[in-house]
């Protein structure tokens, strides 16, 4: 019997609002981010899911999003495992820089490549491939076995750590992942087959405005 995997990107953070590269830095959610996290939780409550366990990163914006989601589905005390394997992609030397300033300095195209390409790391940081190289093994050893045993599992994490998972789950190419942006606080509900491939995917909200 296979289970359900729900992925949700944290709500807007202070540094998302200020347009700064964040990576492993640890800003909190903004008020809007709190509302987005609650809205994601409400969508999951309406969907009718009850989780068996939750996973989140070692960063506060994902942890608080996780808690808002659990509160919304009336599971405030659910076991929650925090692990830095699920942290955002490390932005290296770009961390803390303004994204528009970076575009002015290095050019629009270079910055887009650093932000969205599969295998070009930002200076001193991780490419999406590098991020996947720590997210994916953790998923395989700690998360997937639970889903395959029939559990319903929540992962509240980050734009790029989740993109690295979605790339494999949705079988996206390097070209397709370049265009994929995940919206904050919009849950993606995956049902997996016994062979760990995707039986169905539902997006509970609007991904179209994501950037
Ligand atoms: O700054 C970051 O860590 C990420 C997520 O907010 O930004 P980007 O969208 O550029 O990958």
Automatic annotation (TrEMBL):
Q: Positions of the site: Transition state stabilizer?
A: 158
* Quaternary structure (record): Homodimer.
Q: Which family does it belong to?
A: Belongs to the phosphoglycerate mutase family. BPG-dependent PGAM subfamily.
Q: Which organism is it from?
A: Sinorhizobium chiapasense
Q: Which HAMAP family match?
A: PGAM_GpmA
Q: What is this protein called?
A: 2,3-bisphosphoglycerate-dependent phosphoglycerate mutase
State which Enzyme Commission number(s) the record gives. Answer: 5.4.2.11
According to UniProt, this protein's pathway is: Carbohydrate degradation; glycolysis; pyruvate from D-glyceraldehyde 3-phosphate: step 3/5
- Membrane as a keyword of this entry, yes or no, is no
């Amino acid at each position: 019997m296979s289970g359900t995997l729900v992925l949700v990107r944290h709500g807007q953070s202070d540094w998302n609002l200020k347009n700064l590269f964040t990576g492993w830095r640890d800003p909190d959610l903004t008020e809007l981010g709190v509302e987005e996290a609650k809205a994601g939780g409400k969508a999951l409550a309406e969907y009718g899911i009850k989780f068996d366990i939750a996973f989140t990163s070692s960063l506060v914006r994902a942890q608080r999003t996780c808690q808002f989601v659990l509160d919304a589905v009336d599971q405030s005390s659910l076991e929650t495992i925090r692990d830095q394997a699920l942290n955002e992609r490390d932005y290296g030397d770009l961390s803390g820089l303004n994204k528009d300033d970076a575009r002015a300095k290095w050019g629009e195209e270079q910055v887009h490549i650093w932000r969205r390409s599969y295998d070009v790391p930002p200076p001193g940081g991780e490419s999406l491939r590098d991020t996947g190289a720590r997210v994916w093994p953790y998923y395989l050893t700690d998360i997937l076995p639970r889903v395959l045993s029939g559990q319903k599992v929540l992962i509240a994490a980050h734009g790029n750590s989740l993109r690295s998972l979605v790339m494999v789950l949705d079988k996206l190419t390097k070209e397709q992942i370049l265009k994929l942006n995940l919206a904050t606080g919009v849950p993606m509900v995956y049902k997996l087959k016994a062979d760990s491939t995707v039986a169905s995917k539902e997006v509970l909200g609007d991904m179209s405005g994501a950037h």
